[in-house]
Amino acid sequence: MQRALLDRLLAWRAAETRKPILLDGARQTGKTYLLTDLLGKTFQRVLRLDFLENPALSDAFADALTPETVLMNIELITGESFNPDTDLLILDEIGECPRAVTALKYFAEQLPRGFIAASGSNIGLLTSFPVGKVEQHALRPLTFREFLWASGERALIKAYEGQVNNAAAHGQLFDRLTDYYFTGGMPEAVAIWYENRDASILQRIEAVSRLHADLVEGYKRDFGKYSGKTDAQLIEAVFSSVPSQLSAVRDESVKRFQFKGVHERKSRYSELESAIAWLHRCRLVLKNFPVEGQAKSPLAAYQKENRVKLFLFDTGLLNHMLGTSYRELKQQAYEYKGYIAENFVQQELAAMGQEPSFSWQDSRAEIEFLLTDDSGRVVPLEVKSGNRTRAKSLASYISKCKPHMTIKLTGTRGSPATETENIVLPLYYAEHLGKLLSNGARSINSPADAAG
After folding, report:
1. Number of domains in the chain
2. Torsion of CA 395, 400, 403, 406, to 10 degrees
């Protein structure tokens, strides 16, 4: 199973000197697999310490935190040798050992040629962090591109990466997109989906659904284990409320998160703030901040924490928590569930590093996302789950904000390749928005006679 982040890790490996890698991400997003199986195979040897599985490994960091002392202690405890010039040391679930986190600073300063990689699912909860001493990356669920990579369908992967825009490619890619809506991007769910392709569709659905149920229960157990001073029941209430609030919207844009009704004794942002922050730091929810009036860069200047939209970090878990069936997603009924497409786009933007994201509201008009191009110009991005592309909200935004370019993501094949101002792309090409914004021109390939 390929991961796009591997390219950055290989560049880190090839550098003459380096800071320790710190890989952050929700539990079960594939951090260990990425470091051990994908990056690890490029090393002569890999030594992995898992502090969650074996808390006694923390003893290696009980004394001085210099690389020399720590590595000597690791060899004594594990009985294995380690060569910092050629081997990879992986400190898994490093958040379970605060002194190991602190030690990363000394590895950065005293062993810059060493290959030290750490990962954790509660990095955002750490009270002490070696700022500026690590190269930090976030690993999120598989993107749609990575989902296609896992399929092994070479012709379809080639069409996606070539951004082909014709009827044959559109039919296949949209079909896989609705599969992705169901499975989501959790690595084990994707593996189950493709490894069972010879089984009946009902068996595949059941296997993925069981895994989703296990994952959700696992996250809920983590609430109690890692919540600290934050009320674990409040965290669970917010977590469960995100899908239900998203599903309350049918063919309109997702609304701001409503604090009233989430918990029977709490109804204000100030009372839910700690739980929302906890879920966001653990990368289980994604944030979007609405902007009103004239939208100008930097968009972060408009950010108000008590006016926020919340999305779930994975569409598969979202649909599982809502009980949305695979059949429903494959049928036209899903067109009236625009929140699924919006959650998908939010995930793709997050994987591109655009999280939190921003949206636009004005009276009754709403634009799902606002993006910024390389010149700092704001570009409205409208998301439509089905084939309907006309929208009054975008016309309202154009009238009030006069953007140089607009983009829609829809269930259609999109607009001709010659269009550079009012661009329509199929939803599954959401990942290519970054290229579009940096180039300032259309990058979707289509034959000269392609229909809009």
Report:
1. 2
2. -20
Q: Please state, in angstroms and rounded to a whole number, the distance separating the CA atoms of residues 174 and 171.
A: 5
Span between the terminal Cα atoms of the chain, in Å: 34
- How far is Cα 89 from Cα 350, in angstroms, rounded to an integer? 28
pLDDT band at 250 (very low <50, low <70, confident <90, very high): low
pLDDT digits (tens, 9 = 90+) for 185-226: 999 999 999 999 999 999 999 999 999 999 999 999 999 998
What DSSP assignment string belongs to 215-265? HHHHHHHHHHHH-TTS-HHHHHHHHHHHHHHHHT-SSSPPPPPP-TTSBTT
Residues 132 and 265 in one domain: no
Are 122 and 155 members of one domain?
Answer: no
Q: Give the per-residue pLDDT at 421.
A: 82
Tokens of 260: 């009233």
Q: Do 72 and 193 fall into the same domain?
A: no
* Residue 120 placed within a domain: yes
Residue where a domain terminates, one of 138, 166, 198: 138
Residues 6 or more apart in contact with residue 205 via CB below 8 angstroms = 182, 326
d(CA 60, CA 75): 9
Q: Which of 138, 160, 189 is the last residue of a domain?
A: 138
**Do residues 43 and 166 both lie within one domain?**
no
Q: Indicate whether 58 pLDDT > 50.
A: yes
| Domain housing 433 | 144-439
User: Residue 36 in contact with residue 90, Cβ under 8 Å?
Assistant: yes
Q: Both 220 and 337 in a single domain?
A: yes
Q: What is the CATH number of the domain that holds 95?
A: 3.40.50.300
Question: What is the bridge-based pairing of β-strands 46-50 and 88-92?
Answer: parallel
What local confidence, expressed as pLDDT, does residue 128 receive?
84
pLDDT single digits (tens) 115-158: 999 999 989 898 888 889 999 999 999 999 999 999 999 999 99
Which comes out higher in pLDDT, residue 413 or 447?
A: 413
* pTM of the predicted structure, to 2 decimals: 0.92
Segment 91-109, tens digit of pLDDT = 999 999 999 999 999 999 9
Q: For the purposes of burial, counting CB atoms within 10 Å of the CB of 413, is it exposed (0-12), middle (13-18) or buried (19 or more)? A: buried
Same domain, 113 and 209: no
Of 109, 101, 71, 99, the C-alpha closest to 87 is: 71
Residues 165 and 205 grouped into a single domain: yes
